[in-house]
Amino acid sequence: MTTAADATPVEVLQHATSFASEVLSQPDLRSRLLSVFRSRLSPSASTASLKPLNLAAETLENAISTNNTSIRSSSLRFAEKLLLSHKENAFSSFLLCLIYSLCDLPRNAAASLLELFCLDPLLARSEVAPGVFEELFLVHLVPVLEWFNERRSKVLSLTGPSSFPLNDANYDDASCDLSVVLPYNKVLSKMSGDQARKLKELEDDYENAINENCKVFANYFKDMLLQKDGSRSISPPEVVLENSSGYERTEKMEEGTSSESWEIGVKNGRYNPIWAEGEKSIECNILSRSSKPKSPPSYPQRVSADILREDEEENRRMPLFEPVEKQRPEGKQSSVTESNSGTPDQVMTNYKNPPVGGKHTAPKDFVCPITSNLFHDPVTLETGQTYERRAIQEWIDRGNLTCPITRQKLHSTQLPKTNYVLKRLIASWQELNPGSLPSHSEYSTSQEIPPFQKAITALTSPNSVISQANIDGSVGQLKNDINKLCMSDILEESEMAVLRIEQFWQEANLEAEIQSKLTKPPVVNGFVEILFNSVDPRVLKATVFLLCELGSREKSVIHTLTQVDSDVDAIVSLFKKGLLEAVVLIYLLRLSTNSLVAMDLVDAILTAIRANNDGVLNMCIKPRTAAMLLLAQILGSSEEAVCTSITSMVLSARAVDDVMKSLEAEWAEERIAAVSTLLKCMQEDGKCRNRIANEAELAPILECFAAASDVERLEIVHFLSELIRSNRRTFNKQVLHVIKDEGAFSTMHTLLSYLQTAPHDQCPVVAGLLLHLDLLAEPRKMSIYREEAIDALISCLRNTDFPAAQISAAETLVALQGRFSASGKPLNRAFLLKHAGLDKRFRTIVRMEQFGSASVDFDENRDEEKAANEWERKMAYALVSHEFGLLFEALADGLKSRYAELCSPCFISATWLTHMLSVLPDTGIRGAARVCLLRRFVSIFKSARDVEDRALSMLALNSFIQDSEGLRDLTPSMKDVLKGLRELKKYSPLAFEMLKVLSEGNESSVHDMWNHKEITQVDCGSNGEVLSIVCFGDKIFSGHSDGTIKVWTGKGTILRLIQEVREHTKGVTSLVAPQSGDRLHSGSLDKTIRVWSIGNDGLQCLQVHDMKDHVQSLVVSGSTACFIPQGAGVKVHSWNKGSKLLNANKHVKCLSLAHGRLYCGSYDNSIQEIDLASGTLSNIQSGSRKLLGKSNPIQALEVHDGLIYSASHSLDGAAVKIWSGSNYGMVGTLGTTGDVRAMAVSTELVYLGCKGGGVEVWCKEKNNRVETLHCSATNGKVQCMAIDDDEEILVIGTSDGKIQAWGLT
């Protein structure tokens, strides 16, 4: 509860926000409240004044239901403007509260809600926001209640003992049985008229005081909200106390008053005395027991005490420990669905006293038959049955139109007014029974009276039954109770015995003899029988309490309980049903983890962890503590799959915040259990890491570190290490400062002491955390913490006797780089790939690691990136500087390991530290790294099959080639390095940069870089000329002038023919194999285009398209094919829509297709670009107008990387021209003197096939020729060329039927 001393604007905002969120999320609640406000408006209000309010309410509903943010915003602005222009009232304040909450204006929303309490406090506290009233206002009104009780007691004291039997100490036992409620007119008949009038006036004063103080404190809370800067202190206002005579006094709230010292015996600020509103007079008729009213009264009646005693005697004659249902005679079973009506003397045969005499259990007619709770707002239907308003309203809202008990049809679904007569009877009964509990059908729904209410209950009823109970503390009586527990055949007697034993235990120090007797197996079994048969929650709690106390002192009790499985099952069943105290007994039983998992206790354990233990008995172990220890036991010893499942349950139940509370527990064992559980949660779902790191109290954990065992210490270190794995470096730094500064002892000194004595497998993680803490400041020349930590990592990494310690040390080194994903996994490898030029792979890895998080931002915040780079630099410098690079030797040894779990993290760490040498000051450490690691990196670079591993080793080698010594040591392996770099250059720009560095100033290196070697040659002269050739996967397809298509595969230096088909009748001029798909297209002079499937079974013709014209220079994109016909123009054919002719004014020689654009090289030396989607034609190069028009045709045309390469005769000095694909400007030329007839372009090279049979190789970057390929066995011109997917093989087809394959070596 909020007190005057600790009430803050934040708490006011929290309660107001919670109220608004609840109303906005529940349409039924919102509809009910709107109906309440409309009904409270004055009947004389005009339609004009009601219309704006109704319109604003409808607009608000539209804003809530729409998903369009702009519509919602405009609707809310309109509703706000409408309400602000209207006269302020309670209805408009309520609507403004909801509007401001939707607009994310919490202060305005809270102010509007408080204004509602100012305008209509009765409505606000009783109908609209009773929760807000209880949390914010009620605690301030304790003086009002005390004042009321004091005045009321004075009025009641005027009644003498003879006239008011309830105050008569000599009243007979039947009358004093508090389970019997006398008819209200018997009580009122003892009052005088003046006394009744004074009570009525006192009630009015009480209501007025409550309302007036609501207004006062609402204004006080509003003033606190308006004071945003906290520059001045606002004292709580004085409480106003008034009566009807005008007498007034005030009391100042004490600042330090604790809410736990009071108890409010009211609901929503209403005391509910026994007077009806507006009642002018009271008819005092004394009704004897034998008299009956002429008609059934409208309020429930109770049985007499004599009849209750008869029922009690009947219960005693029943056998012991039979189920309750069996103990009830037929026709007398207790049912809440029976009628509540009847005459005063009518015997209610279905009513039974509770096991303890019923002195604290509500009479049945005061309990709702639906909710099984005391009536708060009773309503009596037309059928005569009474229900709780909310319960019967929900019954009707579900579509039921009958009375739940009588099943009679209801003529009206509009509920009547509150049954104030019954409500006041309940209030009077509660005054006489201050310790009473509602009668519940199941103990799981019972609620203990909070401590806050106990003090005022005592003030209201000083003669409380509990306070006047006389407990016989004699040992003889206690022994008698123990005998009854073991021997009695009557359940009620055994239950009473348990309650008395529990009371003795709580109030007296029992002798050892008595404790010893309680631990005997017969007594323990008697307690267990109570657990099996009793349904009273108080008895069950007392029984479990006693078993826990006995079991914690004597192991024989636990042994007795675990002898019979059904006994354990009964305890577990009670716990699952809501008896929280049973978790302590389950913990004391010390069950195995497998048994706990099989019992499916996790949900109940989480409920116990979330529950408030304030109302629980003072046990040897708190239920929350026992639940926490059990959860940690299950998570710590279960199989991985079970552990994952249970951890997911903890996360889905949102119990992380409740588990964090155990970090501040008194017991160190509970703190360790919470640490273990939270560690599992962070490892399962890293999204909770930031919240735990931000909110968890670390000081209690650090304080219990010294006294913990080695296993517990390791768990704490793992937990702290996990906290600093956030994806925000600045946040990790803040957490490290907290770890370093919290606790009574020096954290670093404690960790150092632990590191020096810890087992080998625990050293790496301790060293990693210690190193993190040491580097919070700029690395010093000498630090004992840093030296010890790095020494421990190196020692563990080189200790082959402990493989687990080696792997842990290697993984710790990887994490030291300091970059993590949202799930807490290191991103060292991903960022190294980024530095190596594999950006796509970097993004893929990060996306996978960040999957499920709110967003993935590759362009990191500048401050975060700066902090991460600074941390990486400091950590790398500390590691490589230790003992002049001693760590490199340990990493080199790790790279030789045959275990991938060790070799892989060592490779990542070695690559990272070697790469960081290029950005750290050179103190000679680079030489030590080169000696230890260069050969290992070259070996990985040469032999690794994975592109990422090769790229990482390349990144490390790049650091070594920065100086002459590195180049010298790399010379023996230069050819292998160059070959690997050429293979990687299509993936990484870094490979190309390294190629330039290695070839700079060395002409022989340039030629070595582009060295080609003839692999093989085959003669296909019998099939005529080789007109077309294409590479697809590991196969080569060639088209010949006789219509043959051949399929080849290359293995080593042999080009092997695997298939030959001849379905074209004339020469195959074109072969096209799109990169996506498994189809091959062939164009022929026989006027057809064939579509072939490429599979393991070879080529198979799927479709034949008749083009009605010769097909030359075929290109294909999707479902569109373009080719050069026999005449002018270019034909574009769609497989579904037919053909059309484009560029009809040009005689086209060659075609190229890229990104939906068709490029045409014409006989008149012109080049055109055609957009196939729109048909737009653009000129890239204008042709030369000559008489014949075909003197200088474009022989070949290729498009690659946004550049257009065209080849023709060198009449203007350049045979090959290079154009920009974006602006058509010429960006370069290749000055070849050859007669180019074919062309192929790779990432770095341009191949020109000449008429004389040779192939010139040109460098794309420098536009210079680097090599010329000659084949001595052929004099034919080069007709066609193709490059394989890896750009390592060049295949050439000639006019004399030869096929040559060249390899880039």
From TrEMBL:
Judging by the UniProt lineage, the source's domain of life is: Eukaryota
Output this protein's name.
Answer: Uncharacterized protein
